[in-house]
Amino acid sequence: MSGPDAGGSGLVAGGPEPYGDGTRVVRAGLPEPEPGQPFLPGPVLASIFALDPDTGPVPGRDSYGRPDSPTRRLLEAAIGELEGGECLTFATGMAAISTLLFTVLRPGDTVVLPSDGYYLTRAFAQQELAPRGVTIRLAPTAGPYPSFAGVRLVLLESPSNPGLEVCDIAQVAAAAHEHGTLVAVDNTTATPLGQTPLALGADVVVASGTKALTGHSDLLLGYVAARDPQLVERMRSWRTGTGGIPGNVDAWLAHRSLATLDLRLARQSANAAAVAALLAGHPAVRSVRWPGLPTDPSTVVAARQMRRLPGVVTFELAGRAAVAEFFRASRLVTAATSFGGLHTTGDRRAQWGDDVPEGLVRLSCGIETTADLVADIARALDAAVRVPES
Ligand SMILES: *Cc1c(COP(=O)(O)O)cnc(C)c1O
To answer: What is the mean pLDDT of the chain?
Structure first.
């Protein structure tokens, strides 16, 4: 995928395009290399910056850490490049999502949210937006979607967490735009290397950077990305007013982690392919969802709109006792929530109140050696199949 002159002129921003993913992430958001300077400048740890005593604060010059952070701006440049829009980062994914909901929705508005997406988005909207006069409609990720007449905002989540359902983003965006409905996509599971919703017709991307984007299970992060400068400015103003910014050390760690995103996703996705095939043929498993399985209902749409498949596989065992035995028998799958990290983890989602079967596990494949992971999970499934459910 390298441009014709990629070898000669150096891999600088504005150079020959398009570059491959590995090239894009390793350079994303970095300043031009300067002799004697690090590639990624260290975190600027400042809550205040010196003011010019004559002029006082001047637009474009850093003065206070809530609106201003050089470290955060570099990370935002990087994610913005990858998503194809202007990016604002937040302390967590929920800070980003709540910013979108609160800046766009007014009393009397209607919002369509996924019925099967991240549970807290739905719960938060029901708790905080409904009492403020916002009507909430739920639609399953795979559809059917209601008429968008009178709908202010539709939030899609594809692939959805935890069910890994996929929706045709371009198709839903076109239907929504006919009615002037704003289209947002939660891009957490795919990451911008997996799909770029803005290029598929969405107006806004929201995401948790806590998961695969940063991938080391060591920080929380959220972001929004959009092309409409007015929408970005409203969200920036909300962020400045509510204060949900990421810290500078976390922003720097996130930026450092981005450089390996292509490598991490490649191994996670390869591991997920091998594990999904194993799960699909094992008698302990009642059902398995992964958009890359040829038998999966989402495979056609996923192949069309996604550039790579996630490292997350969702499957169902007989029940709670079988899942407990699965974890006991495995050495490489650690019970933990969240996903997208270096280490393989599994999460029984019903324990968090998700409206899913007791035996449903969201398995997040890490970057371990594929054969080791497959052998370990096969052993754990063999143990789980022998457990009687009470
Ligand atoms: C985790 C997650 C969020 C929330 O992100 P936090 O960083 O935990 O606040 C939102 N959407 C999806 C799809 C998620 O998986």
So the answer is: 95
